[in-house]
Amino acid sequence: MFHGMEREQSPGPSRRTILANERTQLAWWRTGLTAIAVALGVGRVVPELANSGSRWPYTLIGVGFAVYGIALIVYGTRRSRAFEAEVGGEGVGEGDAIFFVLTAAGVLLGAASAALILFS
Q1: Is the pLDDT of residue 37 over 90?
Q2: Which residues contact 80 (CB under 8 A, 6 or more apart)?
Q3: What is the CA radius of gyration of the chain?
Q4: Helix, strand or coil for residue 15?
Q5: How far apart are CA 36 and CA 41, in angstroms?
Q6: How far apart are CA 62 and CA 50, in angstroms?
Q7: 2, containing H or E segment
Q8: CA-CA distance, 44 to 40, in Å (whole number)?
């Protein structure tokens, strides 16, 4: 042991496990936001640079990337919450409410990006 000191055992998940779960959720969000950025690039920027007469393939692929990004953000959040429930997290707290607000913001911004690609 630690020179005669005993370590206390906590009944819930360790701090390292909780932090690893948060890092994983943030990685899902980063990937989702990157997909939304790619959506804007493919759906709006590339057609302008390509001077192509046909814009619909770029629009279709751009919207596909936006939907993919939204799905990644939502899945990452749901996966993280399911993991917390499985390992006996403390339930929905202030930090969880903030995560849900940020997830909703990511979804709304992704939907707005898809709308921008489709309707402008």
Answers
A1: yes
A2: 21, 22, 24, 25, 28, 99
A3: 20
A4: helix
A5: 9
A6: 15
A7: none
A8: 5
* Length of the chain, in residues: 120
Yes or no: say if 33 and 108 are a contact pair by the CB < 8 Å rule: no
For residues 114 and 67, is the Cβ–Cβ distance under 8 A? yes
Residue 83 has pLDDT above 70, yes or no: yes
91 CB-near residues (< 8 Å, 6+ apart): none
Tokens, residue 66: 């936006």
22: closest CA among 69, 71, 77?
A: 77
Q: In the chain, how long is the greatest CA-to-CA distance? A: 78
Give the integer Cα–Cα distance in Å for 28 and 26: 5
The SS3 assignment for 7 reads coil
pLDDT at 68: 98
* pLDDT attached to residue 10: 55
Q: pTM higher than 0.85, yes or no? A: no
Residue 28, number of CB atoms within 10 A of its CB: 20
Task: Report residue 51's pLDDT band, with 50, 70 and 90 as the boundaries.
Answer: confident
Average pLDDT, the chain: 85
